[in-house]
Each structure stands twice: as C-alpha cells, then as structure tokens.
Write a structure and sequence with these properties.
Elements lengths: L1 H9 L5 H12 L5 H10 L19 H4 L55 H9 L9
Helix pairs in contact: 2-3
Length: about 140
C-alpha cells in the first residue's frame, strides 16, 4: 500500500483528492485528502508545484482579489481627565481600572499604565494591596 502511495505521489498530474480516490478504491480504505497530504509530508515527498501543474493551480475569484475596506469614522478626541474613556477609546498602554459608576457608559481610568501591567501606579497599588479590587459591572 505504501509503495503504491509513493508511486501515485510521484505523478505530478494527480491531485491529493485523486490520490485519495484511487487509494480508497484499490485498497478498500476510507482515507481522506488531508491524510494523504500528511503522509506525503511525513515521507518527505516533494511538495506539489501549482505553477507547473494547471490542475493544481487555482485562481482566486475577482471578489477576493480586490477587497475594499470601509473608511472608519474619526474617533472623538480623547480626554486627559481620569475615568472619561470608554472601552472603545482605550489604547494599549492605558489603565483599565473601571470606574465605580455601575451604569453605562462604563468608563475606565485611562492614565498611563505601567509596562506589562493593565493598571497605572495608583491602581496597581490598590490591586496588590487587596484592600479594594475593581468592582464588576452588572
């Protein structure tokens, strides 16, 4: 069975789908296309070259080749006051300590967070002291 698989993989005109079909008919197995691909890789068979083989070459539909993305609206200016930033306005290095206000819009501290931590100096101290943690919003 392995010898036949190697012979079929050596034929560049056959796709793995065709190899799967031939193997399943000849040996009464239930192989999948991905099983054939994996076996060929484990046997270090040379990869298929879609450039030289028109049966393996696939053209992308025109819709996929020319994707367009919508232009996002400008974000409102960011405030420098603490607890005025919403989740959409937070950036990578902003403090994510939630405000005590339990109703929308939920706001966060937004001050500069410590490197590698989600909170600023003040809120890191609060979080590590165990005195008070951020209150979960309902």
């Amino acid at each position: 069975m392995l010898a036949r698989f190697k012979v079929l993989c050596g034929d560049e005109s056959l796709t793995f789908r065709a190899i799967r079909d031939l193997m399943n008919v000849e040996f009464d197995t239930d192989l999948t296309r991905n099983a054939c691909i994996g076996k060929a890789r484990r046997l270090a068979m040379p990869p298929r070259d879609p450039v030289n083989n028109p049966t393996l070459k696939k053209e992308l539909p025109a819709v996929v080749r020319f994707l367009t993305f919508p232009i996002l609206p400008d974000l409102p200016p960011r405030s420098t006051e603490p607890f005025t930033l919403t989740i959409d306005q937070l950036r990578t290095h902003d403090c994510r300590w939630p405000s005590d206000e339990p109703r929308p819009p939920f706001t966060y501290c937004g001050c500069k967070a410590l490197t590698g931590l989600p909170y600023c100096v003040k809120h890191t101290r609060l979080a590590r002291s165990g005195l008070r943690g951020p209150k979960p919003h309902p």
